[in-house]
# Entry
Amino acid sequence: MNYNGQIREICEMVARQLGTGHTEKIYQEAFAVELRQRGYRVELERVLPVMYRVEGNNGYNDVAVGYARLDILVFPPNEQDPFVVELKAAASYAEGSLRAQIQVYLRALQDQYRGISGYGVQFMQPGAAAVNANIVHMVFEPYAKQIVNPVVRQADQELIIHG
# Structure
């Protein structure tokens, strides 16, 4: 399911109330409060192993080479599959790195949650003319039995709130 409208509403609420200049953690906590108010179950800072595939004598083995910490894992009410919200607080828009980070989380969770999707939200920091929350929506969709391909669907690119 696509949650663009609700994510956008939460962005507006958080951006209007907090404005610019806060750390990512402050935006994360406010975002989580708004999600809980709407009936979502929220898990903050879930740690995920980053796997590396090594070829050995008996085939391939996956080895954990580190860990990633996702910002918010959201479980919608009455729905099976959660979605990821990755937040950034920066002075310039970095869509490429935001997309790459979301892909890491989606790959790590795809076996556990078949319909996992992710949203990237960036709150612009001082230096921007307005409070700006950019939203990127990504969905993993299988195109073959064992291969899962990231399909990026661009949400309405920018949400600008003039304060």
Strands lie at 41-44, 47-56, 59-69, 72-75, 83-90, 117-124, 131-142, 148-153, 158-161.
